[in-house]
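Q: I'm writing up a methods section and want to include an example of the input and output format. Could you take the sequence below and give the corresponding predicted structure tokens, formatted cleanly so I can copy it straight into the document?
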Amino acid sequence: MLTGNFSAALGKSADVKNADSKTATTGSSTEYQGQLDPELQRLWYLFHQRGKRAAALNEIDSFIRREPNKMYLHAWKSRMLAEIYESEAALQEVNLVLRTLPKDSHAIAIKARVLAQLSRTEEACRDANTVISLAPDNDYALGTALRVLKDAGRFTEALKAADLLVKINPTNNINLSDRAFCLSEIGGKSNLEQAVKDLTKVVQTTGVQTIGFKNDIRLASIYVRLEKFALAEKVLIDCCNRYPNALQPLLELIKLYEHTGQKEKAKEQKTKLDQLQNDLGI
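A: Here is the clean output for your methods example:
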């Protein structure tokens, strides 16, 4: 999937395309220049086709041999390598970029991801926080920083990126779900109440999917932490109705009834669970 405003970028003038602007997007030239290069974007698409990764990498290598000073080619190659966990090679490419463009947010975001893959957590988090400061309106940079910080358990720092992503796109369910996760991990009544608001929006707009109920369950668990047991029950009952063949929502409902001392309701749901397991051949 192409990133950023690719179609808008293609409409820019040729002199912008050829300019070596270090602020073409917030703190980044390599992401923007790569989006303006139709051949590179063809390779980016090719890279994500089944069985085509080696071919895409071979082609980008040939581009780099012809024009080794185009830093954006090295940055996008590093991004490809990071996606397939060729972390050492990705780090070598992105360091080359940063020697020339030390404040390129695209390259710093890629490096943060690679360092995290290499278990160099402190360095990865440092770069992730740098990215948040450099690129407060860049989807890729913020999304990468969020993942790095969240995976490191640095939820307060990750929340900064999540807040900015929600500001950019307030209806995006992934952004809302990520922010709710950070808020729930940080804890505190006000944070939990905001997480409820975010997850309620997600649940109301999420279609029936194989793993779609994870946000319903998370919402119910936050209601339990807020001691709003009736609301937790409602969320789980609705979830069970929307996903009638899923075991997990039913198990969570049983746990809720047991937690609140509603033994008869728990027993009734256990009977339903046994029947569902028999129907599913489990």
